[in-house]
Each structure stands twice: as structure tokens, then as C-alpha cells.
Amino acid sequence: MPVSELTSPSLPDAIAPVLELSGITKRFNGVHALNGVRLSIRPGEVLALIGENGAGKSTLVKTLTGIHRPDAGTILLGGQSVAFGSPQEAMAAGITAVHQETIMFDELTVAENIYIGRHPTRGLAGRVDWTRIEREAESLFARLEVDLPVRARVRDLSVAQRHFVEIARALSQDARVVIMDEPTAALSQREIRELYRIIDSLRASGTAVIFISHKFDEIFEVADRYTVLRDGQFVAEGSLCDISEPELVALMVGRAVHQAYPKAQVAIGAPLLEVQGLCHPTEFTDVSFTLHKGEILGFYGLVGAGRSEVMQALFGLSANVTGTVRLAGESARGSGCESGCESGCFSAPGQAIASGLAYVPEDRQHHGAHLTLPIGHNITLPILSTFGFFTRRRAETRIARHFAEQLELKAHHLGQHVEELSGGNQQKVVLGKWLATDPKVIILDEPTKGIDIGSKAAVHRFISELVARGLSVILVSSELPEVLGLADRIVVMRQGRVVREFTRQAATPETVVAAASGLAFEPRAEVPA
Q: Model's pTM, two decimal places?
């Protein structure tokens, strides 16, 4: 299998790279985050940067965009050696990044965000030329074939629209290299197709795109070539038309991932969580289901179906929720809604936790972890009250190490701040944090979102181990293979309602998607031989 010095079949070999990296090395506290990394990309090419969480992708991106200075190595841009001292210098040179979590000024307009810090002026007084700003912003979106009002406030935009603003900002600076870091993580399928179209437009205009994604279908859809990193080191590069997905996975994780969804055979026990008639005034209506001991209950639905909203309500995070919830035979006692109707739901997370319910949220950075605290503090935070004053440090270390080992957490030490970890390892910290409460039921809301395939396999194995120990799991996932591979039963939601429930044996990709979409599905008749 050729893995080096391969070029994209869509570009002539004679075209010189617009960006070349060689020997890039970066250390933090004596530990190599990058060690001798090389990379090259030509104009009009899409390069997939591939690696597990913790492989060094984020550090490399920060090095390219001027956030970090490399300790060794060279960066050539257009054949000239460059050294960026700030993100502003990198952007001025033509390198910009579109991140999964967009950073913009919510109260400013679309046009203002595109030209923030470099407003065109007019007249001797140097007044900002607002007319020109809006006209040029409209021209950028016309070039992208995106219909987006330039006077709209960024706070009112969808995630996809925010990405389009970031791309327009890159084009406004004549970007030569655009880095897209997990750009589709929170997009619908329609929005993803629109992003693909824009990437094709950038390719056609001669812009080089570095595309970072954990989803192999996306990589093979949009990219021409690949570069693989592992443990901060360059592993391989080549043309995607010359490699298969299993071969790419083996390069990425250093081993073959044979079983993506290891499902343990567990005897399903008695009902443990019973939900009846759960309602919210605006988010969902009449949601009822039962979860048994030792069961994985999958929740599937398209964007906006109401799955996450139901889970937040179960955990006591939502007001004005009605219905009844029974956990381990005990009824929840809530405070009721503002209209005075009685509620049989948890009215606060503390009640849910005390009853044996844990919730791992979808947004790990804002709702799941304290990024500026160490790993050990995060994992033991919900159970601090159980420690004695003199034994706290020892107990915290023991518990944190236990879950870090079980979840295969990649970190330098337990005192490392969570913000310094990769996204997948941040998610593992959040998982460990809630498992430390010893729950009866754990809700996992998109537990593998933004996680590479190797880390996904580790999380899947751990979920299977949890139910083997008698824990019950509610798995909310937008990845249909994950739900089909792990769940014993699947609840399908659409527009805030439960529309179907499937057993593991009866669920197929076609029937589940049809139910989530509101479509009728008829199995294809067998054609006689």
C-alpha cells in the first residue's frame, strides 16, 4: 500500500505546494505534542488531516494559525519561509481556520463580523464605510451562492450559517489556505451538502482546504489526499483513491478496529425507569417509555425532534414539565409548573442525582466539564461531599485514576486541565465524572460526537461493560449505525413526539429513518429467481 509521496490525481504534479511543513516540533512541559511532522498541500486541493483525539491535529492547526510557535521545523507558504507571531499575522498571510465552535461577536451583524478589526474607511476623518462593508459582504455570499442577510445579528444564526460567515471572512482576506476543523459536527444533512458545495467552490477558485473530520464518509466525499498523524508524529500521506477505509483506520489508530459496536449479551431485567405522559409547552408532547435494568434504550430522530429536550427535562433541567417519572419504583416529586399543575418529574438535577440518574450532555465544553479545572477535580466534583477532609486528596486520586484507566483517557497526568485535552478525551472526563456517582441509569446524549473512531470504539466497549454490570443506559445519538449496533430497543421521535418503537431485531436503517422522517416504508418484495 503506497503511503508517501503520492499526489492527487485531480492536479498536475508540476503544481507547486502552496503550503509545506517539515520537521514541525512542539513541546509542552517537556512532552512532545508534535514531533517532526510534515505536510504539504497544493492550490485547489482538499487535504484530509486524520488522527485520533490527541494525535496532534489541534496543536498543528494552532501552529499554522499563529497561536503557537513551533520549537523546530519550517513552514513554507508560497515557497517562502514564514513564522507567525499571532493569528492576525497568519490571517494576513492567507491562512485562516473555520472551527467546530465558531467564535464571533453575537451582538454584531454578519457584515460587521466579517470585517471586524479591518473596517474600510472613507474621507479624511477615516469614518467607517458601512455601505461598502455591506456591499462587499453581499458580494462574498453571492460568490458562495449563499442567501444570508448581511444585516442579521450573528446571535440569530444557525450553526451552519455561522460557518458560512467564517468562510466569507476567509474569502474577504484572500485566504490561500482554509482549515476546516470538524465543520459538520452540528449540521443537518442538508447543511452538510451545502458545505460540500462551498468546498467545491473553494477548490475551483484555487483555494487549498485542510479538512479535519472523524467521519470517514465525509473524508472520502470531499478530500483528494490524506495526511495521518498518530501520537504527535507523521505516519503516512497519500491519495484517497489508493486506500480503503480499514487501511486508513489501521494507520490512524495503529491497529485494526474489528468490532465497532461490541454488544454484550445481557439478560434484560425488570422495569427500572418508567416515564408517562411527559410534556413541555413548546418542546415535546406525551412522551412515554420504559427502560429496563441492564438495557440500552436508543433514542433516534432528526435535528429538532426533541430528543435532547426530553433528556434535559428528565434530569430536572427544564421548567414547566408535566408527567410522571418513576425510578427504581419511587415516584419523582417535582414542584409543578407555573400554572399550578402537579408534576411527577424531577424539578432539579440534585433530585435526579440523589435518585440514581446521571446525564452526560451533548455540549461537553459548556455543560459537561469545567475546562479550567484539573481532570481529577472534574471527575470527583459531583461526589466531593462524600470525602473526608483528611482523605479527600487520596480518594480523589484513586477514583479519578480508576475511571481514567477504564475509559483509556489520554493525558499527561490527572492534574492536567481539561481544556488542554482533545475533544474526545474531554468527553471521557465527563463520562467518568457521572459514572463516579454510581448511578442506576445514565443518559448519554451524543456520547461520541466529535470523537475519532478509536476513541469511539473505547466508549462503545465501556457502554457495553456498564450494562453488563447491571446499569441501564439511554443512548441518544444522531449516528444511526451506533444506535442500531448498541441499543436493545429504539425509540424514534419526530417533531416532539414518540412515533415508533423498534426491537433490536426489527430495526433496520430504512425503517428507522422512514419513521424519523414521517415517511411510509414498504420492504422491497423479493424477486423470484
A: 0.58
